[in-house]
Amino acid sequence: MTRPLWHxxxxxxxxxxxxxxxxxxxxxxxxxxSDYALMGPELRGMQEDDSANPGMLWVLDGEVLWRRKxxxxxxxxxxxxxxxxxxxxxVAARYPxxxxxxxRPIDLEGRINACRTKHQRAEPFTxxxxxxLSLAAYVARQSNGLPISADDDPATLPFVxxxxxxxxxxxxQLNLSCAQCHDDNWGQKLGGATIPQGTQPGTRFIGSSGxxxxxxxxxxxxxxxxxARCHMPTAPRR
Amino acid sequence: MARTLINVPTTAKRGDVIEIKTLISHPMESGYRVGTxxxxxxxxxxxxxxxxxxxxxxxxxxxxxxxxxNPFISFFTVATESGTITFEWRGDxxxxxxxxxxxxxx
Lengths: 238, 106
Known about the structure:
heterodimer; A: Cytochrome Bc1 Complex, Chain D, domain 2; 10 helices; 4 strands; B: mainly beta; 3-stranded antiparallel beta sheet
């Protein structure tokens, strides 16, 4: 195993050395695009076919959870929100959004858990648990095809600025920032993979592990620790 | 019962080659990974997939630890007669799942 690893990291280092000479900065609004635009026809076909897209397994589980009564109030999501196809249309596209009671932005999973504890009086789901991913995927599914609209609440601006500082901060063993790949070199190849933009991967994203990632990372407010685990080895965990 | 997604055409002409797609929710734990506490995570995979068309085997597969979670199996068969297509998955720890899909052949 040593040799292929050495080979890869050496090749990657050479690519990076050449590629990161100049910094392009933030991607202009008219050049921003979904990862979907960078996919090959086979992957797009698989993603569009609901009987071949593994993400649908989570969506179907989420639909069951949407109707399941839970917590001490014995209410289901559907008891307050009704049919998700109507009430949740466009909701996932607006997250993360500022939450007045918490005084900070909250992502879709955070909103689901807040709703569980406050209105259903149920235990919050564990982050990244099957239940939370399923429910988030089901809610996000209702916004399929809608454009992501960033939260324009002025209260979120300090958080966006803080996220941007992390995004542009060089860190880890390779001394790279997120921006050096996802702002400056998107669309280029790193090994065999196309480097996507750092915007959110859309509502039907399936991670490379074959599991759904329901991260709602609009703009610069990103859930980055999962990315950093591989791409920024030895970076400090936040 | 594990969650499954099956795609079989509801109608077909006699002699048509039809594509069948199946997807099943399963972790396909290889048995070669180490858990957070340092012990090996025991193997938990689907070992066998069988598709029968009116009781006759049309496709059969043995799955191995290298196959990813939520195995997607797609294959072709010839539409011979109306009836039922049955899918069965069997695996470690007594895992068993089955689904059926009707097909009308004209």
